[in-house]
Amino acid sequence: TASFAALAGNLEILQSMLDKISSLSLPPEQHERILRETFETPDHKNNTPILMASVSSFECLAFLVQHCPNGVALLDVANDNGTLPAHMGSHLQDVRKLEFILRTAPSGIKALNMKGWQGRTPLNCATKEVKEYFTPQKIQQISLERELELVPENLEPGSLPAIVCTVLRQTIEVQLYRNKRYMC
What we know:
With 184 residues, the protein is an all-alpha fold. Helices cover 65% and strands 0% of the residues. The chain is built from twelve helices and no strands.
Protein backbone atom coordinates (compact mmCIF):
# COMPACT_ATOMS: atom_id res chain seq x y z
CA THR A 1 0.00 0.00 0.00
CA ALA A 2 0.95 3.64 -0.27
CA SER A 3 1.35 3.89 3.52
CA PHE A 4 4.04 1.18 3.57
CA ALA A 5 5.85 2.69 0.58
CA ALA A 6 5.71 6.14 2.22
CA LEU A 7 6.94 4.80 5.57
CA ALA A 8 9.80 3.02 3.80
CA GLY A 9 10.58 6.24 1.92
CA ASN A 10 10.21 4.39 -1.37
CA LEU A 11 9.40 7.05 -3.94
CA GLU A 12 9.83 4.57 -6.80
CA ILE A 13 6.91 2.44 -5.60
CA LEU A 14 4.72 5.51 -5.13
CA GLN A 15 5.61 6.71 -8.62
CA SER A 16 4.90 3.25 -10.03
CA MET A 17 1.48 3.25 -8.35
CA LEU A 18 0.73 6.68 -9.83
CA ASP A 19 1.90 5.56 -13.28
CA LYS A 20 -0.42 2.53 -13.18
CA ILE A 21 -3.38 4.67 -12.16
CA SER A 22 -2.55 7.26 -14.81
CA SER A 23 -2.39 4.60 -17.51
CA LEU A 24 -6.00 3.56 -16.89
CA SER A 25 -8.59 4.93 -19.30
CA LEU A 26 -11.10 6.26 -16.82
CA PRO A 27 -13.40 9.25 -16.53
CA PRO A 28 -11.85 12.03 -14.42
CA GLU A 29 -14.09 11.41 -11.39
CA GLN A 30 -13.16 7.70 -11.29
CA HIS A 31 -9.49 8.56 -11.73
CA GLU A 32 -9.68 10.95 -8.76
CA ARG A 33 -11.54 8.37 -6.65
CA ILE A 34 -8.83 5.76 -7.31
CA LEU A 35 -6.10 8.31 -6.46
CA ARG A 36 -7.88 9.09 -3.18
CA GLU A 37 -8.32 5.40 -2.34
CA THR A 38 -4.71 4.62 -3.18
CA PHE A 39 -2.86 7.61 -1.72
CA GLU A 40 -5.17 8.93 0.99
CA THR A 41 -6.68 5.88 2.69
CA PRO A 42 -5.52 5.71 6.31
CA ASP A 43 -4.54 2.50 8.08
CA HIS A 44 -6.30 1.05 11.14
CA LYS A 45 -4.80 3.78 13.39
CA ASN A 46 -5.79 6.54 10.97
CA ASN A 47 -2.21 7.03 9.74
CA THR A 48 -2.44 8.52 6.26
CA PRO A 49 0.33 7.91 3.72
CA ILE A 50 1.23 11.60 4.10
CA LEU A 51 1.72 11.15 7.85
CA MET A 52 3.84 8.07 7.18
CA ALA A 53 5.94 10.01 4.66
CA SER A 54 6.50 12.74 7.25
CA VAL A 55 8.27 10.08 9.29
CA SER A 56 10.59 8.94 6.53
CA SER A 57 11.14 10.91 3.35
CA PHE A 58 10.80 14.53 2.29
CA GLU A 59 10.56 13.42 -1.34
CA CYS A 60 7.68 11.02 -0.60
CA LEU A 61 5.94 13.70 1.45
CA ALA A 62 6.19 16.27 -1.35
CA PHE A 63 5.13 13.66 -3.95
CA LEU A 64 2.01 12.70 -2.00
CA VAL A 65 1.03 16.30 -1.30
CA GLN A 66 1.34 17.03 -5.01
CA HIS A 67 -0.48 13.95 -6.32
CA CYS A 68 -3.19 13.29 -3.71
CA PRO A 69 -6.43 15.07 -4.57
CA ASN A 70 -6.61 16.23 -0.93
CA GLY A 71 -2.86 16.23 -0.30
CA VAL A 72 -2.54 19.73 1.07
CA ALA A 73 -5.53 19.28 3.40
CA LEU A 74 -4.09 16.00 4.73
CA LEU A 75 -1.15 17.93 6.19
CA ASP A 76 -3.61 19.03 8.90
CA VAL A 77 -5.08 15.56 9.57
CA ALA A 78 -4.04 13.77 12.75
CA ASN A 79 -3.99 10.04 13.43
CA ASP A 80 -5.84 8.39 16.33
CA ASN A 81 -3.13 9.60 18.76
CA GLY A 82 -3.47 13.18 17.54
CA THR A 83 -0.13 13.11 15.75
CA LEU A 84 0.14 15.47 12.77
CA PRO A 85 2.80 15.54 10.06
CA ALA A 86 4.15 18.71 11.73
CA HIS A 87 4.69 16.74 14.96
CA MET A 88 6.78 14.19 13.07
CA GLY A 89 8.88 16.79 11.26
CA SER A 90 9.51 18.55 14.54
CA HIS A 91 10.22 15.42 16.58
CA LEU A 92 12.59 13.98 13.96
CA GLN A 93 14.64 17.20 13.74
CA ASP A 94 13.69 17.59 10.09
CA VAL A 95 13.46 21.33 9.50
CA ARG A 96 13.08 20.80 5.74
CA LYS A 97 9.89 18.74 6.18
CA LEU A 98 8.57 21.00 8.90
CA GLU A 99 9.16 24.15 6.85
CA PHE A 100 7.47 22.51 3.84
CA ILE A 101 4.45 21.68 6.03
CA LEU A 102 4.30 25.22 7.45
CA ARG A 103 4.48 26.72 3.97
CA THR A 104 1.95 24.28 2.45
CA ALA A 105 -0.61 23.15 5.06
CA PRO A 106 -3.90 25.05 5.28
CA SER A 107 -3.11 25.85 8.91
CA GLY A 108 0.24 27.40 7.95
CA ILE A 109 2.38 28.41 10.90
CA LYS A 110 -0.57 27.65 13.21
CA ALA A 111 0.45 24.01 12.74
CA LEU A 112 3.28 24.68 15.20
CA ASN A 113 0.73 25.13 17.98
CA MET A 114 -1.80 22.43 17.07
CA LYS A 115 -2.19 20.07 20.00
CA GLY A 116 -1.78 16.38 19.41
CA TRP A 117 -0.81 13.34 21.43
CA GLN A 118 -0.89 14.12 25.17
CA GLY A 119 -1.71 17.76 24.35
CA ARG A 120 1.73 18.36 22.86
CA THR A 121 2.31 20.75 20.00
CA PRO A 122 5.03 20.40 17.35
CA LEU A 123 6.96 23.09 19.22
CA ASN A 124 6.69 21.03 22.42
CA CYS A 125 8.11 18.04 20.52
CA ALA A 126 10.84 20.06 18.86
CA THR A 127 14.48 19.40 19.49
CA LYS A 128 16.86 22.22 20.36
CA GLU A 129 18.03 22.37 16.73
CA VAL A 130 14.47 22.77 15.42
CA LYS A 131 13.70 25.48 17.98
CA GLU A 132 16.89 27.32 17.05
CA TYR A 133 15.96 27.19 13.35
CA PHE A 134 12.36 28.31 13.83
CA THR A 135 13.05 31.57 15.57
CA PRO A 136 10.21 34.07 15.89
CA GLN A 137 11.74 35.94 12.93
CA LYS A 138 11.79 32.78 10.77
CA ILE A 139 8.19 32.01 11.68
CA GLN A 140 7.20 35.60 10.83
CA GLN A 141 9.06 35.34 7.51
CA ILE A 142 7.18 32.18 6.54
CA SER A 143 3.90 33.80 7.54
CA LEU A 144 4.61 36.94 5.51
CA GLU A 145 5.70 34.94 2.46
CA ARG A 146 2.45 32.94 2.62
CA GLU A 147 0.47 36.19 2.85
CA LEU A 148 2.35 37.60 -0.14
CA GLU A 149 1.42 34.54 -2.21
CA LEU A 150 -2.26 35.24 -1.54
CA VAL A 151 -2.21 38.79 -2.91
CA PRO A 152 -3.24 38.76 -6.58
CA GLU A 153 -0.85 40.35 -9.07
CA ASN A 154 -2.67 40.30 -12.39
CA LEU A 155 -5.47 42.77 -11.88
CA GLU A 156 -6.64 45.50 -14.25
CA PRO A 157 -3.97 48.24 -14.04
CA GLY A 158 -5.19 51.39 -12.30
CA SER A 159 -8.27 49.72 -10.83
CA LEU A 160 -8.96 50.13 -7.13
CA PRO A 161 -8.35 46.39 -6.42
CA ALA A 162 -5.03 46.60 -8.28
CA ILE A 163 -3.96 49.68 -6.29
CA VAL A 164 -4.98 48.08 -2.98
CA CYS A 165 -3.12 44.87 -3.86
CA THR A 166 -0.03 46.82 -4.89
CA VAL A 167 0.01 48.67 -1.57
CA LEU A 168 -0.59 45.42 0.32
CA ARG A 169 2.23 43.65 -1.56
CA GLN A 170 4.60 46.55 -0.90
CA THR A 171 3.70 46.60 2.81
CA ILE A 172 4.38 42.87 3.12
CA GLU A 173 7.62 43.18 1.14
CA VAL A 174 8.82 45.98 3.47
CA GLN A 175 8.02 43.78 6.48
CA LEU A 176 9.93 40.89 4.87
CA TYR A 177 12.90 43.17 4.19
CA ARG A 178 12.93 44.40 7.79
CA ASN A 179 12.60 40.84 9.06
CA LYS A 180 15.55 39.67 6.93
CA ARG A 181 17.70 42.59 8.07
CA TYR A 182 16.90 41.74 11.69
CA MET A 183 17.82 38.07 11.13
CA CYS A 184 21.33 38.96 9.83
